[in-house]
Amino acid sequence: MINNILKIEKIGKILLRFGMIAYFLFIGTLNFNNGFVEDGDLVQKAVLLLLVVGTSILLLLHFKIPKLGAIGGGVSALLFLVTVFYLGYLELRESVPFSMIFLHIIKDLLLFFAALILTGESLKEMIREKITKPFPVR
């Protein structure tokens, strides 16, 4: 029974990781392809696209190099936390109803928590690899 529970947890974390990667790629391409691009916006959009694609790659590299997965999880958590404050500031400034502010912010807060889970999973995998590495022969 314990093995089944651990399998469910492992599958859930894999789905969460790939869902986070898909979310970043969707947001990056959506931001880059949303109509007419001015010269000043092009640089900002290119930097954002590079950031989200780079974060996606780091999250994906967890399976080969857990240290890079942990970095990707930390970067994604930071991106979601910045998004929470930025959206909150913009929507409070525009006098948006609190219920709408809550709906926009709660999604990014939940994604922030998910990114923390993925960061912890990568850190746990780093420790597991270090513990199970064979001793060097002298």
From TrEMBL:
Segments crossing the lipid bilayer: 12-30, 42-61, 68-89, 101-120
Keyword annotations from UniProtKB, A to Z: Membrane, Transmembrane, Transmembrane helix
The organism's place on the tree of life at top rank: Bacteria
Name this protein carries in UniProt: Uncharacterized protein
Lineage: Bacteria, Pseudomonadati, Bacteroidota, Cytophagia, Cytophagales
